[in-house]
Amino acid sequence: MLESPLLNDSLGYIDGKWCAADSGKTMPVTNPATGETIAIVPIMGKSETIRAVDAAAAALATPASIEQRSHWLSQLADLITQHREELGRIITHEHGKPWKEAQGEADYAASFFRFYSTCIEHLRPKKLPDRPRNHRWTVYYRPAGVAALVTPWNFPLAMLAKKFSAALAADCCCVIKPSSKTPLSMVALFTLLEQLKLPAGKANLVLGPAGEISDVLCEHPAVRVISFTGSTPVGKKLMAATAPHLKRLSLELGGNAPFIVFDDADIDQAVEQLMANKFRGAGQTCVCANRIYVQTSIAQEFSQKLATRANALKVGNGMDEGTEMGPLIDSHAVEKVQRHVTDAIAKGAQRIAGSESTTAKSQTGNFFAPTVLRGVTADMECVQDETFGPLAPIIEFTDEDEVVAAANSTEYGLAAYVFTKSDARAERVISRLSFGHVGHNTGSGPTAEAPFGGMKHSGFGREGGVEGLHDFIEAQSVPRP
Questions:
Q1: Domain ranges (residues) in the chain
Q2: E strands along 115-220, which residues?
Q3: Tell me, what's the pLDDT at 361?
């Protein structure tokens, strides 16, 4: 079992109290690098979720001032930073990513709480400068109500931080439901939250499979906002389930990110950025490059340099010194990556990095060698579907129109990347790409200070920036004579 002062017996948290499941049922949390059980957590369901929502609804009756909320946010950012090493250790054990990378996730999570501790000033009442209809007008920003925050396993701390920081800034009361694969980061966060002395019911944690928990969150009338990060099929189910109740949804869904390298790009820089973008989290990120488009005249040089770098990555247990890439989350993830590789090779692609085996010492088989393919074409599964693993498929192109059409030939529109030394070309191409986040000469992902979210089937709503507050507030206009 994983021992940590932040895990507090790995319980849920409802109405200001740690609690087990009413049924007494539990489930294991396993380390994907070793297969070992590292914790036992409760399987909560309908009754616990109803109590959590009711507690959050009751807490709404006691609003907190902007100053108080700002203090909570700043204090929580400091606590996360103070405990970054231990939080990173917990993330590594339940997710598998390297410990250094996991500590970076803790820093990233802290940045959202720190940003909203000052961005909250945008929520002060606003007086209109004129007198429309011969009245004085004030616009107030009220909390939208109880917010359900549902997060995935790939960034178990940071994904919640994105949502919870904005919700807390807006004075919403929350019910938080993490992935059953990685619940320990949330237990640790709630251990830190206790130091803030939040009012009972302000933040509640329910653990367990989606089933009954999601049903309550979709149907309970007090839940007015659901913020969800996950797959597009699940996002569509949430839309259907909440439509009769007219709930507000914020959805960050699937991706299929194109990474476009033109012949005038700095090849070494593009390779360096792709390595950081593609293999972080073993390729299990919604913004990592899924389709690498390289102009034909530089494809050979680019491919060789990328293959050399990918073959040199050290794969292993995230807690081992020098590990650069950890395991995939489970055997199903490994099977999907292997299926994409097998399909591509059967259709004519060539493997230029990676192999059937990996040098990682694995008890679980959840490791997959960083793999680079050349000769990839549009009919292959790895182009049509998000792999969510350490596979880099290289597709050659000849001109702007061709690559823009290819990049946009997906129902998804979350992230994209363009590498060229020509600012004019970059402006032309980026303006034609239907993606919510487009990096120019960088593989960088989101930041707390800027809005992030998808287009098309990648969802709607934004996290980060002033815009991240909008999903959790209601504007109320008050005219006075």
A1: 8-253+458-480, 257-447
A2: 126-127, 136-143, 146-150, 173-177, 203-205
A3: 46
CA dihedral 181, 311, 290, 345 (to 10 degrees): -110
pLDDT band at residue 9 using 50, 70 and 90 as cut-offs: confident
Note whether 199 and 59 are within 8 A (CB). Answer: yes
- Over the stretch 384-439, which tens digit does the pLDDT of each residue have? 999 999 999 999 999 999 999 999 999 999 999 999 999 999 999 999 999 999 99
Strands 437-440 and 415-419, bridge-based pairing: parallel
Closest of 475, 473, 474, 449 to residue 168, by C-alpha: 473
Name the CA radius of gyration of the chain, rounded.
23
Q: Which CATH architecture has domain 8-253+458-480?
A: 3-Layer(aba) Sandwich (3.40)
Please name every residue paired with 456 in a beta bridge, in sequence order, or none if there are none: 412
Instruction: Read off the amino acid at residue 188.
Output: A
Helix (H) or strand (E) holding 179: none
Q: 222, 220, 208: which is closest to 22 by C-alpha?
A: 208
- Please, where are the H alpha helices in 243-317? 267-279, 296-312
Give burial (CB, 10 Å; 0-12/13-18/19+) of 205.
Answer: buried
**C-alpha to C-alpha distance for 313 and 2, rounded to whole angstroms:** 27
Residue 43 has pLDDT above 60, yes or no: yes
15-30 per-position pLDDT tens digit: 999 999 999 999 999 9
Would the pTM count as exceeding 0.90?
yes
pLDDT band at 365 (very low <50, low <70, confident <90, very high): confident
The C-alpha atoms of residue 372 and residue 307 are separated, in whole angstroms, by: 6
User: Looking at the chain, how many residues does it have?
Assistant: 481
Sole residue written with tokens 């109500």: 145
The residues annotated as belonging to the active site are 252, 286
Confidence of residue 132 (pLDDT cuts 50, 70, 90): very high
Q: CA of 260: how far to CAs of 33, 265, 380, 446, 456, in Å?
A: 33, 10, 18, 18, 20
Average predicted confidence (pLDDT) for the chain = 97
Token pair 């909320």 in the structure block, residue: 69
- By the 8 A CB rule, do 96 and 33 touch? yes
CB 366 within 8 A of CB 138: no
The CATH fold assigned to 257-447 is: Aldehyde Dehydrogenase; Chain A, domain 2 (3.40.309)
Within 13 A of 265's CA, how many CA atoms are on the CB side? 31
Q: What is the pLDDT of residue 8?
A: 80
